Amino acid sequence: MSMPTPPPSSRTRRSRASSQRGWWLLALGAGIFTSTGGTALALSRSATEPAAAPLSSPPGELRAQVLALLDAAQGPIREEQWRRLGTQAVPILSAVVTDNSSVPSRRSRAIASLALVDPTQGARSIQEVLDDTHAPADVRVSAAQALAQCMGVEAIGLLAARLADREDPVREAVALTLGRLGGQQARQVLEERLPVEERPLVREALQRGLTLAEP
Prior knowledge:
The chain is mostly helical. The protein has eleven helices and two strands. The protein has a single domain, classed as Leucine-rich Repeat Variant (Alpha Horseshoe). The chain is about 60% helix and about 0% strand. Keywords: Lyase.
């Protein structure tokens, strides 16, 4: 009989969370997370290039700038464009994220952008969308991915609850996201869900998640 694995120390959890946040930020820059329109947010500024100071804009002008970035044509949005707007863009992005009347593609891009601009403040709005069963499935998929970027392994418990979601695409996205986060806790929730999941595509995502979560 195998002995139970002791829970990781708080120091270890903090280290894992920091590492995972870095992974999701890198993944976002590589274009792993894309909006409904297929446009990725790219981290194109080099590590040696100094960050530009945020610009202060009148409220009306700032909103216009944010919406223009969200509605940009095909092509990557450079991180530096959001960095120049700074955290003053957070309230506008949060409003778009939670606006059920907004176009789904705009909401998905706002979710990814919010996770990039201010993960700490953005996590609450992003979680609200993930838990909103009336929101479009593709928007909630973006929310699942972005929540992991914002919170790292601390998001596992919140994501695990959505493995029983009524929407197949949401369950698939959550399974893969948990796998990318990795760790014993993620493996456990994936293993617990697999025997009761009936949809073939979701079962496949759960199995892929377990593979990704391998040490």
